Amino acid sequence: MSSAMLHTNDDFLNAIRAEPHERTLRLLYADWLDEHEDPRGELIRTEEEMRQVPVFADRFWELKPRRNELRTTAGTEWCALMKYGTECEPVFRHGIPDGWRERWRLIREFTERWYRVPMPDIGGRQAEIAEAEARLGRKLPPSVREWVAFAHDANMRPNHPIYLHVFRELYEMENVPDHPALSLLRQYEDGYAWAVHHNTLDDPDPPVHGYGFEFENGMATTCSPDTERNPLATTVTEFTLGTALTYMKGHVSGDWVSTTSADPASVLNELAATFPPPTRFGHYNIYEAENIMVLASPEIRRSGTWFEMRIFKPLTREQMPASLWRYSSNGRASHQLTERSILPPAGPNDPIPF
C-alpha cells in the first residue's frame, strides 16, 4: 500500500497487518503517531532500533527498560498486533560473543525470550552475591558472580520456599565435599554436581567440571570427578548457555520435536534454504527464524546427525522445515508435533481483532 493512502490509525494498522515484516512502514507509522502526539511512536522507534543491535550490546540494554515501560502503556492488543512482546525474535543472529559480560547478556535475553522469565541487565543481585561470598569466605570471579545473580533471576519455580530451580536442576553454591571445588548446580536424583575448581577462581570466566556422588541409605558417601568428560565446559558462560539450550524441553512454551537422521543431507540442505546461516556453539549448529529454532548436532549421535526443532508459538505449515515435520508425523521422532503447532490459513479479509 502506498504511503499516500495511509491517513488514519486503522489505515496503518491494516497495512502493517498485511505486511508485518515491512520495517519502513512501521517507521512511517511512528512518524504519524509523533505528529498526533501519541507516545506509541517512541515505542515503535525503540523496538525497531533494538532489532538492529546485538542482544549483548550496551545500546540494547540501555533501551530495554524504556521499551518495557512503553509497552505497558501502549496496550496489550495494540502490542499484539504490532508483534511487540508476542514473538520470539532470533537471539543468535549476531553470533556468540567472546567476553563474559556480553555472553551473560546473551544468556539473559535467550532465557527471557524462550523461557519467558523477565531478565534485567547484568550487575544486579549484589546482596545475594555478597551473601554467597561471605558464606564461602572467598571472592568470586566476575562470571561466577553473574551466575549467582542469574540463578536468583531465573528461578523457574518462584513459589518454592527453599530451593532455586535453574532450568531443571537446583542452584547450589557450596564447596564440593572432599574436593577443592565450588558447586554451581546440583542434580540430586542422579547425584551429580557442576563445579568450578578453587584454583581457577582467578579466571574471570573459569571452566566447569563435573562430579558424581555415591549414595548409601539416602546419604552421599563419596564424590568423584567425572574423569571421562572433564572439563565439561571451558567457561561458566559456555556451561550456562549449553544448559539453557539442553533443558528447554518441557520448560518453555510451545512445542518441540527431536530426531536422528542417518542421511542428514536433505535436512541440512532444507535448513540452509529455509534459515539464515547457522550460529555455531559447541557441537550445535543453531538455525533461527521468528518463533522457531532448530539445533543440529553431527557429533551428538555417532549413527547420524541429531536435530531438534523448538516452536515458540503456532506457525503455518510453510514456516516449518518439511523434512522435520515428516519425521514428527511418521513417528520417527522422540516427540510428535501436535496440531496446535499449525495455524489454519489466514483469510484475506480477517478483521483487526480490536
What does this entry look like structurally?
This is TIGR02996 domain-containing protein. It comes from Gemmata palustris. It is a single chain. The chain is α+β, with helices and mostly antiparallel strands and 354 residues long. It folds into 3 domains: 3-86, no CATH class; 126-244, no CATH class; 254-341, no CATH class. The chain has 11 helices and 11 strands. It has helices at 9-18, 23-35, 40-52, 58-74, 76-82, 100-115, 126-136, 142-153, 236-246, 265-274, 322-329; strands spanning 165-166, 169-175, 181-187, 192-197, 209-216, 219-225, 255-261, 279-281, 284-289, 292-301, 304-311. The strands form 2 sheets. It has a 6-stranded antiparallel β-sheet with strand order 1-2-3-4-5-6, with helices on one face. A 5-stranded antiparallel β-sheet has the order 7-11-10-9-8, with helices on one face. Helix 6 (100-115) packs parallel to helix 8 and helix 6 runs parallel beside helix 9. The longest helix is centred in the first third of the chain and has 17 residues, at 58-74.
Keywords:
354 residues, alpha+beta, 3 domains, six-stranded antiparallel sheet, five-stranded antiparallel sheet, 11 helices, 11 strands
Describe the largest sheet: 6 strands, antiparallel
Counted up, domains total: 3
Mean pLDDT: 86
Q: Which strand-content bin applies to the residues?
A: 15-25%
Percent helix, as a range, is: 25-40%
Query: Order of helices and strands, N to C?
Result: HHHHHHHHEEEEEEHEHEEEEH
In whole angstroms, how far apart are the ends?
Answer: 21 Å
Structural class: alpha+beta
E-strand count: 11
Strand order of the largest sheet: 1-2-3-4-5-6
Tally of helical runs: 11
Shape summary: globular
Low-confidence stretches: 346-354
What is the gyration radius calculated from CA atoms? 23 Å
